[in-house]
Structure formats: structure tokens, C-alpha cells
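Standup notes
- DV: blocked on the single-chain target, sequence here:
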Amino acid sequence: MGWARFRRSWGIPWLGLPLGGVLALSGAAQLAWEGPRFGTTAAERAAVAAAGSTAAAELGLGPGGPPRRAADRSASLKPGQTLRELFNELGMAPHEIYGATRASERYVDPRQLRVGAPWSAYLGANGRLQRFEMVLPGRGELTLERVGGQWQPAWRKLRRESRVRAIRGTLEGALESSMARAGAAPELAYLMADVLQWDLDFSRDLRRHDEFRVLFEEVMVEGHEPRPERVLAVSYAHAEGRALEAFLFGSATDAGYFDGEGKPLQKMFLRSPMPYSRVTSKFSNRRFHPVLGVFRPHHGIDYGAPTGTPVRVTASGAVVEADWSGGGGKTVKVRHPNGYLTAYLHLSRFARGIRPGARVRQGDVIGYVGATGLATAPHLDYRIQVHGRWIDPMTLAIVPAEPVPSPRRAEFLAVRDAMRASLETGELFRPPAISLARGSAGAGPAHLQPEPELGRIN
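- DV (later): unblocked, structure below
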């Protein structure tokens, strides 16, 4: 889905189950949910969150036997920091770094570690690293221990419990706080923004008294507070009458969001390069320039946002420029199919790997908001060109993706109707005689089963 920043900040990836599998499992998950939490007090759970599960055992909070001594060093993975760099900082020799990194690859991809992953280092009597532990939020705990001159890896998968919920609410103030009042974690606002990003500009289109309903899956890991993981269906109705719907449909490998008619929500272009920002200046052929003090064309839209806010590319394509561009400061230009080109001006810095020739996918972060060039405050100047002519991004024609295939349309309509009923009542309904998931190889279709009540919509 595009915007990894908020959506993945909690660190839990998709479960990888087809939609039918998620719904069929929700009953069992609901029963487990009502059991005792893994923590005992709020203070202890906070300690677990801060120090990681292994450190929690050292504090006597976990079931791991007698407490070990405290770590000699502990911190979190820094932005851009690799496992090799971290091992080098811990004083490991190059051949040891190679061995430890290779050992870790048995369980994790060192290139895909997330910023903020907590780690702990234990030194031996000679001052050399003896044991290394790192928690991959939402996934598990990696341990590397020196045994006879070799690094022995171990992996403990974190315990996860999930359930499906439905909430509804009215927009009063920020969307995040409105979600919280409706009974969901504020992060659900960002997941919903991901789903509706092609049709709803969250910096311009939200209005007070808009109504939303969301059917979503939330997950609890190792006793932490539950957090939303993915949206299954959403309805967003503007106060003046316009309504949007989205339904997740398909298998784990080809799932996507579709409107009520089976048309895909995904379009060639996102409505905005940033989900949350404010428009400070619109497209104009004659605008007073705040720095130069003269009237001149402004062939873009200015989005005001703090320095460092991630900027995402609005359509897939190839980077043709990533350099200083006069008054535009640090600028990225991306070429897209059918004669389109997008430009992102006044960036504070470019994202890693963004250079001429690089391929980018819709939603990839390509840079960060700044005030380079002729700018009075941090903002993004976003521009679109088609066949060499600048156009107003707000008037861009919508280019849709492929709809639900005809052979699966009846299946989609059954899922849509069941989800609509869930959004209306807060209860999970069984779609009529359809199969949405398959078990292991050779197994027959896994049908949705009657489910216990999810709990009324708040």
C-alpha cells in the first residue's frame, strides 16, 4: 500500500492470510482475546515495551527463569544504520561481523530491519561481544551468541492475537482524535488514509460532521495494547452527501480495495503526495512571489508541512532528476507513462536510492519536506506536466486500474454485501456459499463459518 511511514510505524506486517482466512479465524481469536494479558501491571507492560522481551526477563517480568544481569549496552536501531555498522560500533572485528551477519540471515533479512528496533549487547570478561539480542517489533526476537568461536543464532516468534472489529464515528476536529472517540486507536486514521488516498485528499476534503464506518483487523502482540493492522472495509460519507466505499477483496497475493461496483480504488495518481498537510498556495498563471516580490506563474500546488515530513511519489515511474534546481532547491522529477512528469520542489533531502534512472512505485518516499531554494518556510511545491505542459494537479483526470474480473464478480458482490452489513450493525455476517481462501496444497476450499458477535459498533 504505499505510505510506510505511519502505517508500519507500529512494525507489524500483514498476516499474509486471504481475506476469508482472516474472517474465519476471527472467532478463535476473539475467544483468546478475552483471556489474561501477558503483562500484569501497566508499569510492567511499559517496561516490556521499552526494553524488549529479553530485557523484560532480566527484570523478572517474564517466564524466562532467573533474571540475567543487565545488558552492557542497549539502544535502538538508528535511521540508516545497518546491522554491520552496529556490530562495528560494538567493536567487532571484520571477520566477526561477517560471521554474525551471516548467522542472523537464517532468520531475518539484515537489509530490512526497521528503525527503532531495540537491541541489547552483553560483553564477556575480555570486553568482546558475547551475546546480542534484537527485537523486531511485531515479529520476534533474534539472539546471537558466541559459542566456540562461532555465532549461534536463535529466534523466538512473538505471540500474536487478532480480532475483527467495526466502529463508526463523526468527524469532530482531527481524524485521529475522532477515531479515538469512536473506540479505535488513532493509527486507524492512517490506515484508512492509505485505503482512500486515491479519492480523498486528507488535507482538503475532510469536513466537520463527516461520518465514517470502518471494519478492521487489530492485533495484540505479547500483551501490548491492541493496534489496528489492516482495514477490511470502510465507508466515508461527507456531510453534504458524497459517499465513498472500499472493500478488501482477493487472495493474499492479489488483494486490493474496490468500490461498491467492483471498480478498483487504486488510480494512476494519488490525490496528494502527503496524506496529512495543508494547501498554502494553489496553481496559478499569475501569483505574487513572496521572495522575489513580483507576479509570476506558479505551476504547482504548495503543501505546508514541517521539515522532514516524508514526500511520496504519486505515480510509478522513473526518476529523471534528483538535484538542485535553482529557485526550486532540491528537486526530484519523475517520468511516468503516457507523457506525464511530476516534480517535487524545495526538499530538505532526497530519500535513499533516489537518483536519475531509479525506478519508483506509487507511494514510495522520494524525499523530505524542506525550504531549499526560494522558499520562506518549509513546504512542498508539487507539479504535474503532461506532454511538456504544466497542468493543475487538482484537475488531473482519473486513470483507474482493472476492475474485478467478470468470473469473480458474483463472489465480490457477496463479500461486499456481507461487509456492508457488518459496517451497519457491527456484527460479522457470513457471505452466502462462497470460498475466499484455500488451506494447504490439496485442501478443499475454506468457507466462511458462522461467527460469534464481534461487538456492537461504538
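- Follow-up: The chain has three domains: 23-31+160-263+413-447, 71-157, 278-395.
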